[in-house]
Amino acid sequence: MKTLLRGGRLIDPASGRDAVTDVLVEDGSVAAVGEGARGATVIDCDGLVVAPGLVDLHTHLREPGREDKETVETGSRAAALGGFTAIAAMANTDPVADSLSVVQEVRHLGERAGLCEVHPVAAITRGLAGESLTEIGELAASGVRLFSDDGKCVQRTRLLRMALEYAKAFDAVIAEHCEEDSLAEGGQMHEGYHSSVLGLPGVPSAAEEVVVARDLMMARLTGGRLHLCHLSGAGSVELVRRAKAEGMAVTAEVTPHHLTLTDEDLAGYDTNLKVNPPVRSAEDRDALRAGLADGTIDAVATDHAPHAVEDKEQEFDHAPPGTIGLETALAVILTELVRPGGLPLARAVEAMSTAPARILGAADHGGPVEPGRPANLVAFDPEAEWVVEPPFASRSRNSAFMGRTLRGRVVHTMYRGDLVVHEGKAQR
User: Fold this and answer.
1) Pick from 327, 321, 237, 248: nearest CA to 285
2) How buried is residue 16: exposed, middle or buried, by Cβ count under 10 Å (0-12/13-18/19+)?
3) Which of 72, 266, 303, 417 has the CB geometry, 3.0–4.6 Å to 109, for a possible disulfide?
4) How confident is the model at residue 426 (pLDDT cuts 50, 70, 90)?
5) What CA–CA distance (Å, rounded) separates 40 from 37?
6) d(CA 105, CA 63)
7) With 0-12 CB in 10 A as exposed, 13-18 as middle and 19+ as buried, what is 265?
8) pLDDT tens, 33-46?
9) Number of other residues whose CB lies within 10 A of the CB of residue 220
């Protein structure tokens, strides 16, 4: 079967292409770029941006264990509707993805859903307990690229050193949730003026920065691959900037909510805005934006964290942290960063597709869009206006952007040559 994506603006950071052109897809792969074909099913992409499918480095799918919040299938459908063709499923499931059996189960569930490629992330430590390492070699041999205790930080420095050393031997990446437990204990939001006004215990930026500094030291010592999850503070950005200037093999991600929201937004005690790490000051937000624009921060990641309604509908200090994000991430970046002119559209695509694909080792994703490559593509309308509101494809509805009007929406998502989203609707 031939499908022609006709007349879209192809933005392909991997090849440097940015031009209105046609993309012909046949038998799951890109067959041609820049020329039409007879006998193909034509999809009119006039006014749309066509790009390599988005890749998310940080997704919580909750299965196994909390299928009431999300499943691999529902999370994959949310991802496809958001333009993602590959996602990294975090390890804090129940049971934890610290063994080959759980990793294989998650991978199998992703293949069965067939909506995007699901890359299981394995835990760094057994049971996320921070006491002993998982079988990094065995898990890496099974195809695991990222190891993370996300939701928890590896507090023991010697253990982190060992993890970086072992992972290096298998060309794997240690992805760290940077938070010093004793400084963050009991905190509900960013520590500052607004936490004092709201009467909520705060988490200082130093809780993140001290661990970022430590982790960078260990990466320098070991030569291991370090990835820093969901950076939130200006100090952290500067530490990464200095490390990259030294030539260190470190990468970092930032979420749409940390790029757009601040601690002042919590004035209404909306638990959907309670996230970990917390959204911080306007100065921190602006530093994150600058770091993303200049490449200090490599990628945008959703940290999609679904919660049941009853979990979020509690008093602020009892509600769990987290927001869903797969279905809104692209639109938030287009609305809040690209449209105002702070982030070029090509850089946004790079940060949401090409760069995370490289970090994840997702070779079939992120471009280049050229003949012979797998047809994992997204087409979106940068001008489409919509309001964030239920129903969502996700089983949960705890969106930090609920009620907001956004500009930019996914029209088509193509995974392995199949239209899993067509005209904005999931096809499965």
Assistant:
1) 237
2) exposed
3) 72
4) very high
5) 6
6) 9
7) middle
8) 997 778 899 999 99
9) 16
Residue 100 φ then ψ, to 5°: -60, -35
Which amino acid is it at 299? A
**pLDDT for res 1:** 82
pLDDT-based confidence at 266, cuts 50/70/90? Answer: very high
The catalytic residue positions are 303
Residue with tokens 């639109």: 331
Distance of CA 309 to the CA centre of its chain: 23
Confirm if 380 and 292 have CB atoms less than 8 A apart: no
Please identify which residue in the block is written with the tokens 């958001």: 82
Q: How far apart are CA 384 and CA 407, in angstroms?
A: 5
Strands 49-52 and 377-387: antiparallel
pTM: predicted TM-score of the whole model, two decimal places: 0.98
- Residue 405's H or E segment, with its range, is strand 405-415
- Give every CB contact of residue 292 below 8 A, 6+ residues apart in sequence: 254, 259, 300, 337, 343, 347, 351
Q: What does the pLDDT look like over 370-424, one tens digit per residue? A: 999 999 999 999 999 999 999 999 999 999 999 999 999 999 999 999 999 999 9
